[in-house]
Amino acid sequence: MVKKSIMILFFLTLFTSLCFAEDCAKCHAEVQADHFGASCTDCHAENEKHFAKSAVFSSDAEGCISCHNEYDNMLNSKMHTRADEVRYVSETFDSYDSKFFEKNCSGCHVSTCSDCHGTHQIEKPITDTCIKCHNGHATGTDYTGYALRPPAEKYQRGKEINGEHYLKMLPDVHFEKGMNCADCHSMKNLSEGKTLTCESCHKVSRRDEHLTHKNLKCESCHSAWGHGEYGTTYMCFDNSRKIYDQYAKKLKTVGDSCVRSSLLNEYREMPIGVDADGKISPLRPFNVFFTVFEDNAVVFENKMISNSWAAYSPHTTQRGVRGCFSCHENDKRLMVLQNDIYDLKREGLDLKSFWNKEGQRVYNGSFLNEKQIETTKYKTDKNKKMKTGRWQKIIKELE
Fold this sequence. Notes:
alpha+beta, three-stranded antiparallel sheet, 13 strands
């Protein structure tokens, strides 16, 4: 009797689902979906208006979370809230334009499960999906071996990704081995706010270089390159068409009335500092300058509104590493450069050098302190002996 009742209930449910699907198809004939046999109403619950959007975060993605409840914390993840970006933009731009984030930065945040997984042909996201948002000079496209070209018109050539032109660079070894972003950045980890590290998969060998540099993040040595955009400049125009046509019409537009440019772009090893966990880490620049024109006159020009750097992880990992002197005795990477060929003061920029920590900060860590710099530059007797010993070892091996 129980078995018969279950069978009846099953066929009633199936019949109801088919009826709803047939009704939906009257208007949505183009929709083709097969998600583990789910009907339209399994995901799109009926409500007082029509049927609910199943995946939007503003309604708690009820159509998805009702089955995938282990990922309900995705609604609070940084992919959705973009808490770090909101904080940085607020600190930097709010005193000049309180709606800067809303106008220029709000497009790239996850607001629905469909952003990554598709609408009806639901799939696990692949790397091509991720770099639709994770591109530009931030981490993302670097993993696939591409770096954003400078914004000037003469550089706009080569491969195009999401409307931007890119340089071909060395890709990450994990990408070359066929790994997708989701192999490390899984739904489970994203939902729980966890981050995998290199040691999650790799056992670190006990060779001299690793034991000597145990306080460094792996990326400090194993990242092949990073993209540094220096002197990022925003120019905004209020009733200033003449000035815009003269200086900015060939630059990339940002929002309704601004353009974005930069003084310098480099594609090489990045400077180093200390991250929030106390590990020596690559840094990337966020020095931003702001110029405003009103009625074809300058309101202010080249005003530095951000003197920040951020500790980060370039996704350009290689098995090999750079030589010792790419860090040791390299004032540029240590952020203590004194004699810079770029005279920023003459450019009207209030900085001694992009690669001198004076007047700058790391917003999620710090620059190397004087003791760390002294040690890295082989100023101590211990390090001088170590340096001599290594050269003697190299010479002996060559003999």
